[in-house]
């Protein structure tokens, strides 16, 4: 195979993954010009992180559900009911803030186990199970709250989603600690990318040209450090961004480097082959649904902290935003394909579009139309890629 053919094959294989990053940069640049630079101001970048963090948390769990060949329509209701449980305990019964957090996590785990039982061991499709769960847990939210809103949370609970790490290392008008944290993260990314490239070369797998590899590292480092500079010039490092970063790193490792992660891909990619290979399909499906319940409770804690209370309508339509983030980020509708980082980028694309259109004063109905078209095009692109691959 010639060098040109190698490059063409490499670009074709990575088109969807690379394309989503290019699309993200293009959308950010578009709204930068449309809003006169407001969308990339330090204050707005910080608000973007705070306002959409819970959708990104849901997307991490949802992409694993989709990879396994399922869908979860109940996560918005789980966000609501776990936030309600935490609010009732902390606000009405004076339980310490951390007690409310633990109770919400436990409730999310029980909900995930409940739905995992019906999906994995009874054999009810996840679509039906979670559709029932969407109604069930929304009703439980109303019962727990007595159909009224509860607020406010104590200051410690509010800091989960609204607090910042600022001033730990000083700085003249900006937060040095934030810059140091992101610099360490960039160094870790460079090391990981270099190691992965070396391993691919050792196994005689195709890699991009060295100059292109260096350019990619420089661009990623520049974008990340620019983002860090924006945060450092606003209020510092948001606590919720720390939570999100830990989850992204942990679940990237789980999906790419563990036996369970490989089994999730196997179940979604080819169920019959997975069963013949000895994969415990039922337990994989149970684990995926259990994990989704736990992450939905984390999102519920973050959302209730951010809104400083619990409302009966909390989490409404969150499941659609999370699902859209996964498909825009490259997950396949048939399962077996998807990455945590892709889901995060897909969620960020939705966040940037929503935030940018809000800054422009675009009507909510038009925003829904745009989001729907973007989701449709993303899935159409996935179908097109599969047909082209099948025609070869």
Provide tags for this entry.
globular; two-stranded antiparallel sheet; mainly alpha; 2 strands
Structure description:
- The protein starts with a helix and ends with a helix.
- The protein has one domain (3-166, 235-390): Orthogonal Bundle (ABC transporter involved in vitamin B12 uptake, BtuC).
- The radius of gyration is 21 Å and the shape is globular.
- Helix 3 (42-67) crosses helix 9 (210-232), helix 3 runs antiparallel to helix 13 and helix 8 packs antiparallel against helix 9.
- The protein has 16 helices and two strands.
- Helix content is 77%, strand content 1%.
- Strands 1-2 form a two-stranded antiparallel sheet.
- The mean pLDDT is 89.
- With 392 residues, the chain is mainly alpha-helical.
Principal-axes geometry comes out as globular
Low-confidence stretches: none
CATH topology: ABC transporter involved in vitamin B12 uptake, BtuC
Count the domains.
Answer: 1
CA-atom Rg in angstroms: 21 Å
Subcellular location: Cell membrane
InterPro entries: ABC_transp_permease
Protein name: Xylose transport system permease protein XylH
Main location: membrane
